[in-house]
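> example.struct
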């Protein structure tokens, strides 16, 4: 698969097994590629994968999130963010279908947490420039992939199992891409976004203006993320005692990752627990997903393993104090 920001050849460097228990149309295994020339990191997608992404946003993704509306818009500013989810998903799916349905030029275009979802960012930004005034400003906020492998995560692959994130930008590659499309960087700020409690996404916000003389020369910095990925830990340090009667509480991305990567191979897993009603409709490897009411039937011989790591303290307190479980909680 050719690089989506410079169209050169790429090489496979990493595979992450994500699992799939809800019959999602998204791919089950993330195949991470690196451009041979510019070093950009991205997920390899088949033509069907690209089509399925749009279907996922309009059906599965929208079903899991409430549509909201935050529309106090300046007509001279185009802002696309998830505060207005219906607008966000409409634009995103159109962009990934190769359509930019804008009918005027703007003083400012703001893209918040959008570019990591783009199938073809080079074509997109080449076209988007036509809808920004010559004196206008383009603002982009997105995850900073260079910090994906930092020490604030439960495990190194966490950001790679967010399957909707198909472009893994760092500062260098985003500036390189925008430079190819006629933009120059004027400002950058770094921060963190708390995507769910205790889970932080490293974030960067960049501002650009139109400027034709802005090409970057490719150097060693372009391959910094590739080198980090190749030298990072595989999986995460989580060893389970070989005992019977395990129940997992919190059936989400982390659990599926552990299941696919055989973290449960040494234990006897009897059941799964999750408070989300829609998840209780499914089974995994023949096991039902129970509500937390099942905990009242467990005994001291049972062990509950909390696999929703971000909510571990809250869940542990609930199991012990509200549900009065007197077995082992890990």
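> example.seq
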């Amino acid at each position: 698969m050719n690089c989506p920001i410079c169209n050169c050849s790429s090489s496979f460097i990493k595979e992450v097994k994500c699992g799939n228990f809800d019959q999602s149309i998204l791919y089950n295994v993330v195949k991470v590629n690196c451009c041979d020339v510019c070093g950009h990191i991205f997920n390899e997608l088949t033509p069907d994968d690209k089509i399925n992404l749009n279907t996922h946003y309009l059906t599965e993704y929208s079903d899991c999130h409430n549509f909201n509306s935050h529309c106090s818009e300046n007509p001279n500013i185009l802002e696309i963010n998830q505060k207005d989810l219906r607008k966000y998903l409409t634009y995103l799916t159109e962009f990934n279908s190769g359509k930019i349905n804008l009918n005027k030029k703007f003083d400012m275009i703001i893209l918040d947490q959008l570019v990591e979802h783009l199938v073809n960012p080079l074509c997109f930004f080449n076209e988007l420039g036509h809808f920004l005034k010559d004196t206008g400003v383009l603002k982009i906020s997105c995850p900073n992939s260079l910090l994906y492998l930092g020490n604030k995560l439960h495990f190194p692959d966490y950001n790679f199992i967010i399957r909707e994130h198909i472009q893994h930008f760092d500062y260098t590659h985003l500036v390189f891409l925008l430079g190819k499309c006629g933009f120059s960087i004027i400002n950058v700020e770094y921060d963190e976004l708390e995507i769910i409690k205790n889970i932080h996404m490293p974030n960067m916000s960049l501002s650009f203006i139109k400027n034709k003389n802005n090409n970057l020369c490719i150097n060693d910095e372009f391959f910094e993320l590739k080198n980090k990925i190749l030298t990072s830990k595989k999986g995460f340090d989580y060893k389970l005692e070989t005992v019977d009667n395990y129940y997992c509480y919190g059936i989400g991305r982390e659990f599926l990752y552990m299941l696919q990567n055989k973290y449960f191979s040494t234990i006897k897993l009897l059941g799964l627990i999750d408070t989300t009603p829609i998840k209780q409709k499914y089974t995994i490897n023949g096991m039902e997903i129970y509500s937390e009411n099942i905990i009242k039937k467990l005994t001291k011989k049972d062990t509950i393993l909390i696999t929703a790591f971000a909510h571990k303290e809250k869940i542990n307190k609930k199991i012990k104090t509200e549900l009065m479980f007197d077995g082992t909680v890990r």
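> remarks
The chain has a mean pLDDT of 88.
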